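User: If you would, consider this record:
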Amino acid sequence: FFKSDWKISKEINVKKYFTFLMFCGFIASSMAGNPDRQGSAGAGELLMNPWARSAGLHTINTAGVTGIEATRLNIAGMARINSLEISYGHAQYLVGTDISMNTLGLAKKIGKNGVFGLDFMLVNVGDIKVTTVAYPEGTGATFTPTFANIGISYATVFENKVSVGAAVRLVMESFGGISARGVAIDAGVQYVNGPKDNFKLGLSLRNLGTPMKFRGEGFTVTKPSETGANTNLAYDQRSANFELPVALNIGTSYDFYVGDDIRVSPMVNFTSNSFSRDQLGFGVELGILDNMLQVRGAYKAELQKTTAIVKEDVYSGLALGASANLVFNKEKKSKIGFDYAYRTTNVFSGTHNFGVRIDL
C-alpha cells in the first residue's frame, strides 16, 4: 500500500513540475520571437554552447542530451549518467575574432536516481586597447573583459521514464572598472518510451532571472563645479538595467536501430527566444558499434523574416560533429570520449568545438 502510494505521489510531483515548466514556458514564449527586441538583452554568453557533442547538433537535441553538457540545453538530461562524469570543453568562437570559450563540468550520482552537477564557463576575448578622444590609436594601456558563469544543478529520474532537473547559475561580467552580477534559473524535463527508450521528448526553459545592471567606479566622471568655484567634483553616472536572454526549447527524437550495431536518431527542435526570432532545427545522429563512433549533423533556420536592420542570426545554417568513445571497463561501462564540432557562421570563419569526457 505504502509503495503504491509513494509511486502515485511521485507521478503527481512529475505532473506538477511539468505543468509549472509549461506555465513558465508560455510566459516566456508570449514575449518571444520579437525581432524588434533583437539585441536588447544582455549576458549573451548564456546562449553560447561550449560543449562539442550538442554543438555538433546545433544545440537542438533537447530531447536526448545527456550528461553535464545538458546544463547548456536541458538540465533534465544530466540525470542519465552512470556514476560520475567529468568533462572539459574548448571552443574557438567565430574564428578570426580570437575569442575562445573554456568550460569544466562535473556530474555525480547521489543515491539511486539523483545527480548533482557543477559547471564553470569562461569566455576569453583577449586584451583590448584603451582609447580616448585625445589618443584614438590607444594610450598604451589595455583592459581585459571577463565573462564567466558558474552553475549548480540537480536532476533526477522517475521510474526510468521521466527525468526532471533545475539549475541556478551565477552570471558575472566585468570590464574597465565596472561589473554586473545576476542569477539565472534553468529547468527542464525529458520523457522516454519504447522498447529501447526509442522515443524521446524534451522541454526546457533557460535563463529565467532578474535584470542585471552594471555598477562600479568606471561610471565616475570628474567635472568642474557648477557653482563657479575653481574646483572639480566627482559624479556617478547610472546605467540602465538589461534582461537575460530567456529561451524555451521543445524537441523530440526517435532512435531507429539497423541490426545490433547501428543507430539512426533523427530529431526536430523548436526554440522560442524572448529577444530574437524563433528558430526551427532538424538534425540526425548516427551511432556505430554500440556508439563507439558517433557522427552528427543539423541545420537550423529562423522563422521570422530578416529586415534591413535585423539581419540573419550568426548561427543559422549547418553544424557537423563526431565523437569517439573508448570503453576501458565493460562491467561498469566506464569510457573516455573525444568530441569535435564545427558550426558555420554568417560572419567570420565558423566556430570549432573540442571536448573530452570521462564517464565512470
